[in-house]
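worker-03 picked up job from queue 'complexes'. Input manifest follows; two sequence lines, order preserved.
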Amino acid sequence: MNIIDFILRSSETQRLPVAVYPGLLLSGGTVREITSDWALQLKAIKALQARYKSPFALTAMDLSVEAENFGAKVLFSENEVPTIDGRLLTNAEDIEKIKVPSPDKGRGIVQIKTLEALAKEKKSDEFILGGLIGPYSLAGRLFGISEFMEITLLEPEAAHCLIKKAVEHQIKYAKMFKEAGADAVFMAEPAAGLLWPEGLRDFSSVYVKEIAAELEDENFKIILHNCGCTIEHLDAVLASGISFFHFGKPTDVVKAVHTVPDNIIIAGNLDPMEMFVQASVEEMKSKAEELLSQTADKRNFVLSSGCDIPPNAKLANLDAFYAAEL
Amino acid sequence: MAELQKIKEAIMGGKREEVSRLVQAALTAGDSPVEILEGGMIPAMREIGDKFSRNEVYVPQMLIAARAMQAGLALVEPVLAQTGHQPLGKLCIGTVKGDLHDIGKNLVAIMLKGAGYEVVDLGVNCDINKYEEGIKQGANVVVCSALLTTTMPYMKDVVEHFKSKGVKVIIGGAPVTQNYADQIGADGYSEDANGAVKLVDRLLGKTA
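worker-03 finished. Artifact:
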């Protein structure tokens, strides 16, 4: 059974928090270590699996891996997720010239090896997900996010050219996850959520559709994460043609799940900082239960965080997330 | 008036070269730089900010409008300086210590400047001494930005430092919430750049 059928046939609402870094609270170690050492990342993920018995395991959301592979400079710190420093590309000529690297070099291998190890040990009705960045967001990391949004409007041909190169890389990288045993990839496309709806459709969804056409089959699915978009973007996001969407705080997920067909999965959207870091256990439980209640009639809803949960989250709040009841 | 409307429309459309041409033509024709600024340029940025709040335009449109505004300001500001024209207020802005992210900070700075405020941009990785430099330059509000959950707590230090000095501190950034602003005693929080302009308007009792 694939991940979508599993969720749709579940008797209760599934939970899929975007949580790997909080595993450090159980396994020890630092963000820097688990983004550069697959065995330590595996340890953190397995610690979470042992505690929560979730049917889902997701590799770390390290969204600098692909841009680093293209040659971008990455800043590392002990307890923050690696981030891109500066701009690798600054003009249309740079975009034209840059070659698409092979994804089998660099830190992407950390994610692949982590996933491979998880896949080897997975049981039936368990699903292993690889985390990677979406094409528009990758292009933005290479060109500078705000500058890329500007050329999206002012030099759309150059923007499309870079996104196509990002697509080429991400198809290869996602295939590596698939070959390593992934049931799905969790593709984070946050920058596209800052675009206007038609822009999101033309500069992101069209390309997600292309990636899906290359990769999706009965047993392998793409989950599209967009923590920047709003309910106004829903049609544009759905234009990607896939069946599993994960939204952040700005999206009214209750409205979204009541708008889409019943075979389209909507996941979200408890704010990572507000709920998993700052809120009390009671507030966390109450908010999760409110969302469960508002979506109780929908089997195609998955309770989740709205984005990646940071390493300084409270385990007690994650406990409350899983303990929340309808 | 027709020229001011054209300048306004050119800024809102993000037409940088057209803004330069129109503003230069207006200045050459002897139009008041204050009128160009307050009758054409500032209303353009205020309107685009309002459209952003209503989901009628999005971040890319704001960014190109801001670039066009900057092109106009580069021509108007030197002339304004000679007239003794005063901005609505003066603020300093920076991303907090340990944090090198600047997209949100830049957007807020651009919108505040576009709304008629003078903005001292302190850049990224700002410690309290850096914010103090902004105050020494005449700012009476500190605007703090953070993207990282690990750098956000430094905002509390900034708030506490300036509280005793009567300087207002407002905060924002992806992980920041109104609850957090309340917890640390900040004078205000905004979740987006246009909201930051409205917040500063309220704090300083100003309208453009």
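worker-03 released lock.
Chain A touches chain B at residues 75, 77, 79-80, 83, 85, 145-146, 149-150, 152-154, 194-196, 199, 230, 232, 271-274, 277-278, 310, 312 (CB under 8 Å).
Chain A has 16 helices and ten strands.
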